[in-house]
Amino acid sequence: MSNTATVQLPQAAIGAAKAVEEDREKLLTEEQELVARAKGGDLGAYDDLVRRYQERIYATVYHMTANHEDANDLAQETFLKAYRALKSFKGDSSFYTWVYRIAVNKTINFLKQRRNRTHMSLNDVDFNVEHDPDMVALVSHNTPRRDARISELQEKLNSAMQKLSEVHRMVVVLHDVQGMPHEEISKIMHCNVGTVRSRLFYARQQLQALLSDYLKS
Amino acid sequence: MKDQSQDFEQLRQLLALKRHENPPPGYFRDFSTRVIERIEREGVAVDENWLQRVISLFRVRPAISASFCLASLLVLLAATTLFEGNQSASNGNLPTVESKFAVVHEPSALTKASGTAFFTNLEPTGFALDMAPPKQRVFHTNTSLFDMPYYLRVDYRVDYTDYQTEQPRQGIRVPYRLSDPR
Fold this sequence. Notes:
A: mainly alpha, Arc Repressor Mutant, subunit A, globular, B: alpha+beta
């Protein structure tokens, strides 16, 4: 009986993986069609592409700048630049990776110019935070953070992140906040996977030191 | 190492807070519309040629624009100076005559027309005045680069036939100094 179960489980997993892969292929095909139409000047197709990635692009820029207005401007600029440069998009990577690359470069350039003039304009934390397993686990411990209000935690966290260099902050945002795999980050940031890992490790160490009051066990 | 990974786990949990920072409700509803509106308003085209790209670059980088204008001005100035220099040189290659006022004995077709025509060593510019004398025959000019190294002086004279007596008359010589090519 147990043997049967061990044989059936991988098959189910393989089936699920195949379904995911098929969905991914379908999305990629749709994306390629939209890109081709947008290249021909079809703004409706480009509108669809923007809708697909607007939230992720905005979130990346927002977590980097900690400022809603800057994130709004940069996200819009990213899609404008992408549209302008659409002819140069050869399809070597996915449109998603390509747009992300534009957003990352734009944001890093912006932050380099804005250096030492950080002004945070944070978005509100939504109500779902109370049900997030990670947050529940975090505040359930008997630590100083338990007494800290969410808004205070948010401010401390953002301040700590602003102290990281642009590339280190970007790796943390893409991996730890947005859940992007190392390989994808390496494509976006034009570096190898080892560099991504080492940057991530260093950035985490820095954040750990900066947020030590909220991470005591 | 285990402690370190545990700490990172706590850090990861804390970073999860970032995922709950969201823009005002409805923000993404109009986001793509705003992008498309900007594309239409700013006339952003996918298929930009090199000229449009240069214009875009100038718009974004005023310093480049200013440098380009300065460079263009210098090139224009250099080209003008060279052109005028060449023109002076080619005038210098004209056969020089001893007299400054050589008479042209064969009137061109234009001279037979009614009205008064002014001619110089440059191309004729046409009729200037609608005067009575119907005939005129000679005009000429000459320049000497030896005498006029820094500018061009054009002298002209209009000979004509008296309207009433039909006798040929000599006109007055008028020197005309062109502006200094420098």
